Amino acid sequence: PDWPDKGDVILENVSVRYATGLDPVLRDVNVRFKAGEKVGICGRTGSGKSSLTLALYRIIDTFQGRILIDGVDISHVPLLTLRSRLAIIPQDPVLFQGTIRFNLDPEGSKTDDELWQALEIAQLKPVVSELHMTLDAQVTEEGENFSLGQRQLFCLARAFLRKARILVMDEATASIDIKTDKILQQVVANAFADMTVLTIAHRIATILDADSVLVLSDGSVEEYDTPSNL
Ligand code: ATP
Ligand code: MG
């Protein structure tokens, strides 16, 4: 099967910075996220949570240590491969201008049935049907015709179609209506039950539900333990 088929993530002495000459924003981080584990990541603003996701995508430079996914050092993986195999859902995602089909499946490799199934799993079928939309309906510029929570659900549908083993979810800090928020939690819990899920957590419920919680403080690991031990 395609790499990564398990979703085991190891950070070994990882230090990360935005550019040469700048101070590191992650310092000597050693953690292992086991395959299938649900991890909540928390810490104050500026502690390095988003930087950790950027390092996984190699958007910023790991200048010391290494990140292994299923035993492979990601610095040896071609960028396009790496980025297509990890699913990262940003806090405030924008959709592409184009059809729903294109937004779900930019490579055009899925059947209509698969696309509808993904919409169903992401609980977007009622949304799309209510708007009398087909797969070829246009998403307006940056997805403004969908709410923030719905845009995150579209990203989850895309991640599901890609069969990504690793999902990184940056929970929205902006207000999402309670119903959509519940749906988001459910979709992540159900559709990604077997996957490794790292959630940058802004909600206490996410932290309590996690298998383990990583607390970052000023770029270093402050705690990494089960929620009940914290
Ligand atoms: P928040 O909870 O506010 O999202 P965070 O934990 O995600 O915070 P990061 O965005 O990872 O924090 O920021 C960690 C450090 O990296 C901060 O000191 C920040 O100033 C710095 N930083 C973030 N983006 C850049 C950038 N583009 N260039 C240089 N430094 C940056
Ligand atoms: Mg952040």
Give a written overview of the molecule.
With 230 residues, this protein is of the alpha/beta class. The protein is 31% helix and 27% strand. It has helices at 49-56, 79-85, 100-104, 112-121, 125-130, 148-162, 178-191, 204-209; strands spanning 9-17, 26-33, 38-42, 61-69, 72-73, 86-89, 98-99, 138-139, 166-170, 196-200, 212-217, 220-225. The strands form three sheets. The protein has a six-stranded mixed sheet. The protein has a four-stranded antiparallel sheet with strand order 2-1-4-5, with helices on one face. Helix 6 (148-162) runs parallel beside helix 7 (178-191). The radius of gyration is 18 Å and the shape is globular. The N and C termini lie far apart (37 Å). The mean pLDDT is 93. It binds adenosine-5'-triphosphate (ATP) and magnesium ion.
Condensed summary:
By secondary structure, the protein is α/β, with parallel strands linked by helices. It is built from 8 helices and 12 strands.
